Amino acid sequence: MRLIKRFFKSVGVLLLLQVAAVNAELNDKEAALKAGFLFNFARYSDWQVAATPVGYFKLCSPDSDFLDTASWVLHQQTIHGLGIKVALVELDSLNINQCNLLFVTHRYREQWVTTDKSLLLHTMLVGETPDFIKLGGHIRFFLASGKIRFEVAPESLKKADIVMSSKVLRLSRIVKEGEQ
Fold it and tell me: How far apart are CA 38 and CA 173, in angstroms?
């Protein structure tokens, strides 16, 4: 009897590990897709004023798990002739003013609320929480029918001196600044 219980416990643990592995794989896949979107957002946008000219395009996030995937996906890619540097930043740090693009995952929503947005005047701001654009962001990812979609606040981008291609805007849901 004990042997049967132990067997079923082992099977249960294996099933839980398999479910966890599938969830981790889905999260990695979603992060990889979002990194690809970020690459294309940057590729099809023009910065009228560089955030801080440093000789490379700096993609930042406070989420190290996302950055691990983004580093792999964006390895040896370029944006406007510049190599991409993926950088971990803290949202309360002055270093965020050196980012060309900042991606804020849902885990960092509370820090985003208190972030000094004046440090991000010429930075493309992308997030994934429902109120991200209302809280000062430019682009927000959301899921619809199991697919990653995005919405853009073009007027907010314009205030940051960033012009996004109309081709990308046609693929997005357009929102007005402060709306969601």
Answer: 16
Whole-structure pTM over 0.90, yes or no?
no
d(CA 132, CA 30): 18
Contact 103, 127 (CB under 8 A): yes
pLDDT in tens, 113-134: 999 999 999 999 999 999 999 9
Residues 6+ apart with CB under 8 A from 137: 104, 112, 125, 126, 127, 153, 156
Encoded amino acid at 161, one letter: D
The crossing angle, in degrees rounded to 10, of helices 2-43 and 64-73 is 60
Compute the distance between CA of residue 74 and CA of residue 61 in angstroms, rounded to an integer. Answer: 14
C-beta neighbour count of 76 within 10 angstroms: 6
Partners of residue 86 on adjacent β-strands? 59
Lookup: tokens for 42 = 């940057």
Phi, psi of 139, deg, nearest 5:
-135, 140
Whether the Cβ atoms of residue 125 and residue 162 lie closer than 8 Å to each other: no
Please, what's the b/e burial string for 97-132 (b: 16 or more CB within 10 A of its CB; e: otherwise)? bbbbbbbbbeebbeebeebeeebbebbbbbbbbeeb
Question: How many Å apart are CA 72 and CA 128, to the nearest integer?
Answer: 21
